[in-house]
Design goal:
The chain is an alpha/beta fold. It contains 14 helices and 16 strands. A hairpin with a 2-residue loop joins strand 13 and strand 14. Helix 2 packs parallel to helix 3.
Length: about 425
Amino acid sequence: MCKKLLSIALFLVLAFALQAGSVPIVRIKGAINPVSANYIIQHLDEANDEGAECFIIALDTPGGLLTSTEDLTREIMNSDVPVVIYVHPVGGRAASAGVFIAYSAHIVAMAPGTRIGAAHPVTMGGGNTDSSATMMEKVANDGVANLKSMAKERGRNIDWVENAVLSSESIPADSALALGVIDLVAEDLETLIEKLDGQTYGPEDSDTLILDKPQIDEQPMSKVEKFLFTILNPNIAYMLMLLGIAGIYLELQNPGGILPGVVGVISILLALYAFQILPVNYVGIALIVVALGLFVAEAYTPTFGLFTTGGAVAMLSGSFLLTSGNPAFFSISWKIIIPSVIFVVVVIIIALWKAVQARISQPASGKEGLVGERGLVARQTKESNQYVFVEIHGELWRAKGNVPLEPGDQVTVKKVENNIIMVDKT
């Protein structure tokens, strides 16, 4: 009887779970790059395979890379599961690439106090030539055409996209709803789920989303994805590069230290991974490499700080050039650059100072290391009264003094000649 009741209860639980359905949700806060795009695409594919009720992307982005955005919008446009973009939290935005992602979704919702727009493409890495201006005009026109195509497919405002791309217009949630740019305004996720039930979407509202007490399934980034997403922040990548330079320099100055070299190589490799994806100016990288060369040259060439000064100037110039011309979310802040360069230069100056001190300091071992040491006369030698044995650090040395010496006298070593120490009585 108990087994039968247990089977019925299990059946009811499974039936309720199946009836409730699943609504996966992913969250993006930051730039759209290969890591964040792949994270969304992976979970969207899983949602399609599992037949989820819908797929929610909680979005707060200043923009991102064109290639990553195109990969993401292509997957959303071809998704069988309805995709819901929710611009969240309060103060969040769907700017630049975020507009394209929103327009590709089946349903778009925004929280009060959020905004959408400013989708004009920005030149990466600078450039003010006529050819670059012509290219950016082509990219902008292509973006308008792309947004209009998606707007027509999703039944969304077509006219506004020109303002968003060509004039960089940005509008708040209530204006976006009034203009037909979005479908819903929801204060929080719970309110959004309630409003999504029965929401129509598509051209002429041809489709309806039915949610019957859905189970929200949070899909956070894995630790590896979080780590890779973090180092794709240009400020983090830049600090890793300078940490790598400092580590490699210290290893070159002190071969066999191991730890500085290992940390330096790992940091440089992580920085290179980021910079092969991020838009960077390679003249900036070249100047930073030249700076490292000048720092190393200073250690072997007596230029009295000339190479170090030149290295500091080259590193500072290269740092500012590295992401010049990029939008803010793909640029290195001067608040990071200046302290980082100062830190590296100070580390290098300290290492140089210690190296110079080691070269000019007196030997600390061997015969020469005895100079300045104090000892005690142990006994006189048998061969002559002018020589005595002096005990220093538990060792007996044959010594000769400036005055006759007796056992028990305190002496100080002045120099060493042919294994005989010359001492003064103290």
